[in-house]
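pasting for ref
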Amino acid sequence: MTPHSDPAKTLTDLRPKDQAVRVMPLGGVGEIGMNCCLIEYNGEILMVDCGQMMPDEDMLGVDYVVPDIQYVLDRIDKFVGIVITHAHEDHIGALPYILPQLPPQTPVYAGELCNALLKEKLKEHGLKPNLKVYHARSRFALGKSFMVEPIAVTHSMMDSYALAVSTPIGTLIHSGDFKIDPCPMDGVCFDMHAFSRYAEGEEQGVLALLADSTNTDRPGSCPSESTVIPTLERLVREATGQIILCCFASSLHRVQVALNIAADYNKVAIAAGLNMERNIRVAKGIGILDVPCRFEPDIDRVEHYPANQRLILTTGSQGEPMSALTRMALGTHRAVSIKPGDTVIISARLIPGNEKAIYRMINHLVRRGAKVYYPGNTPNVHASGHGYRDDARHMLNLVNPKYLVPVHGEYRHLHSHTELAIESGMLPEEIKVIENGDCLEITPHHAQVIGKIPHGRVFIDGKGVGDVEDVVIRERRFLADDGVVMVILSVDRETGEVLGGPYIHSRGFTSELVESGVMMEEASKVVLDAYNAMDHESQEESSVVQAAVKKALKSYLKKKVARFPVILPVIMEI
């Protein structure tokens, strides 16, 4: 892969120094997602987390974004391994694309649940990595320079940890994602004693704290996961038809609450979606998740149970066009139909930027007669997994680090964390706000950014890794590589009738599409069939139409010419 950083700003001499530890984030600083950080001492390099990020709207044809690890590849003989804090995609999602670039013996350490989920995930990619399980308070060595101790923290994901990374000159603590939950669902408490042991038990104390900043601009303390229970219990108790509870598949605390309530009210919990079914199966298999109710893993058997006994667990809280909940809302789900009187509970954060799609989906659910409850109209239907301002203050006071390095958040969050630290008594020079690619050198006597390392974003397009260097280069390479196929379809806004097209144009794809009348006719028919197969309500949603057209044409072109152009459907409503 080619580094995407500015060569003029990249250090050419980054030889390791004795008595200095280096912190080098490759992602997750100044942004939400793609969490990945390198820690280096005496030339040895350790990676904490390896996450992905969803693409922005202008990243045409990109499925995922992962960090550029060129710095590691250039020093692969000194790379000692990867340690994962928890199993959210923004912390593990890049592993299927990063691991093939690393030696097969590279160790990947994770907690028991994360390890089990990674086995399933990486198996789908044909990978057999060197996975190792760690446990809270059990220290393990990586290379000659690092001793790592996982510390249990509370988060929206079960089996989440902070990491104490000890080096010969001091200990760095990486908080991972956390909040301080006094009533954790699984009974695993935030391990304050372990944090204070590092702050007070060693002569040098904690050299630096790399701390989650995501919610430091929100006052007070983050509500406990247990605050959601009375709300969900009331909504289930008052429901008369089927109940659809939507959350992230990785929010296993929320899933556990739903399963407990299903048992209390004699409901059958039914999993809708591969990720939801897989996560429940894996977590149950290792004893982390309890399933006290009747459970049906196959959504196609939903009709075997009376509507008023169903509690369907699904994903799609962000209004994704092809998600299970969106398809239910549009009446296109193969197994679940929304009926008047049904209850839909969206127990997840409405992520900024997704509001328009989410509210469109809610409108469709309401149009079908469902009662919809979500964070915008129902207090305590969701609780965040990231600590608020007081949680961050508590962590800072507990650890009492020599230096604070805010991570995991946009710049406004990092700035808010800085203000909080100054309010708590730290000096401005003891707080190091850095950017992705910065090389922060820390000693017991100073901490400063000494330059940049190669870094950037690698775009994943299907199974391709790094084929797409960035959006501008991708546009320039359309003619030389896969090219682009544009589909234009004119439809009547009121009736959904096709008024013109589909007109298909290609650039840099293949002359066959233009020259072969048969192929043009077949491609047009594929598009029309995909559009006509949708009901009128789905046809009203241009994003859903675009997704369906793209999927159908992509499948056709793959079979016909084994090529993978970027497909741009344009739906013109007249």
